[in-house]
Design a protein that fits this description.
- The chain is α+β, with helices and mostly antiparallel strands and 340 residues long.
- It has 2 domains: 164 residues, Orthogonal Bundle (Helix Hairpins); 134 residues, 2-Layer Sandwich (60s Ribosomal Protein L30, Chain: A), CATH 3.30.1330.60.
- It has 6 helices and 5 strands; from the N terminus they run ααββααβαβαβ.
- The chain has a 5-stranded mixed β-sheet.
- α5 links the parallel β3 and β4.
- α2 crosses α4 and α4 packs across α5.
- It is rod-shaped.
- Keywords: Coiled coil, Membrane, Transmembrane, Transmembrane helix.
- InterPro entries: Bact_OuterMem_StrucFunc (IPR050330), OmpA-like (IPR006665), OmpA-like_sf (IPR036737).
- It holds the Pfam family OmpA.
- This is OmpA-like domain-containing protein.
Length: 340
């Protein structure tokens, strides 16, 4: 069948400025990635340190809570003891007053009760001393409670400050991630533009071939265009078509900036019927055919790092019917320009 001639393109040398712009963009992306990695590292350290600090704070709060409960219990006990002592003191004072009144009523009786009054006075003095000690202990406990409250307030302030730093770091990381996503989306759009240009060239090159179709973002060759039945060696009729594809790929490789990681993926597919001959499975036949196409393109000057060969056997059919037309449609080689 007749083949359409290749279109000759006149190019204007925009390359130096284009390279400068892309180099600047690459430096910006590398810088953003570096900042993102540093931020992730610092955030990891800060979060780890915060977890450790939180564990220590929780342990201290638990310990302080237990101590506070103990001190409150001691305070209640001391207050109860003080109330008891005060009651005894009132009783003793009342008894002393009664004895004094009785002593004034008669000297003889006063002499008899003198010893008892002295004993009660000594007991009263002793109880006053105990009461003073209890009051001192209560004052000390109140001071300790106040100190514990100050420590708890300081711990709460430290926890709030740590949470504020965590929120600020999360906001910074979210902003950095958003910027990186925008940069990556721009790269994907740029590769899509080159893919569209390349497929436009292939359509012009292969416009007169009814056995070459466009399916989505892939060019599909029927296997019979390139290989004999059951074979993985390119036939002579296929090589002129592959020469045109190789020339288009070489031109594309010169146009796409080197920092865009793109590849031309060559996928081999077979029908569902088992193979015969040298290949033990459809998978091995489809892989061998994809490799044969890649090797031929490399022999024509296409950079090998821009090519990928993959075999899918019968496991991704275009038509699941078990007819000759479906079998023919499923025996194919697909070309897809994609990211590496």
């Amino acid at each position: 069948m007749a083949l359409s001639g290749r279109r000759r393109y006149r190019s204007v040398d925009y390359w130096p400025g284009f390279v400068d712009a892309l180099s600047t963009l690459l430096l910006v992306i590398i810088f953003l990635l570096t900042v993102f990695m540093i931020a992730q590292f610092l955030l990891g350290r800060e979060v780890s340190g915060k977890d450790t600090a939180m564990q220590r704070l929780n342990a201290q709060i638990a310990e302080l809570t237990e101590l506070l409960a103990l001190e409150r219990a001691t305070t209640r006990s001391s207050k109860d003891e003080l109330s008891s002592l005060q009651a005894n003191l009132a009783t003793t004072q009342a008894e002393r007053d009664r004895l004094k009144a009785e002593a004034e009523s008669g000297a003889a009786r006063a002499d008899a009760e003198g010893g008892r009054t002295a004993a009660l006075t000594a007991q009263l003095d002793q109880e006053k001393e105990v009461t003073g000690r209890a009051l001192s202990q209560i004052e000390l406990l109140n001071q300790q409670i106040a100190a514990l409250r100050r420590q708890i307030a300081a711990l709460e302030d430290a926890l709030n400050a740590s949470e504020a730093r965590d929120r600020e770091s999360s906001a910074k990381i979210a902003d950095l991630g958003s910027r990186l996503n925008v940069a990556l989306a721009q790269r994907v759009q740029e590769l899509s533009r080159y893919r569209s240009d390349f497929f436009g060239r292939l359509r012009e090159i292969l416009a007169d071939r009814p056995d070459v179709r466009v399916v989505g973002d892939r060019f599909v060759f029927q296997s019979e265009v390139l290989f004999d039945v059951g074979q993985a060696e390119l036939n002579e009729a296929a090589k002129p078509e592959l020469d045109k594809i190789a020339a288009a790929l070489i031109e594309l490789a010169a146009e796409i900036p080197p920092d865009i990681n793109w590849v031309m993926r060559v996928d081999g597919h077979t029908d569902i019927r088992p193979t015969r001959g040298a290949f033990p499975s459809n998978w091995s036949l489809s892989s061998a055919r994809a490799i044969a196409v890649v090797q031929y393109l490399v022999s024509k000057g296409v950079p090998p790092q821009r090519l990928v060969a993959a075999g899918f056997g019968e496991f991704q059919p275009l038509d699941t019917a078990q007819t000759e037309d479906a079998y023919k449609k499923n025996r194919r080689i697909e070309l897809k320009l994609t990211e590496r």
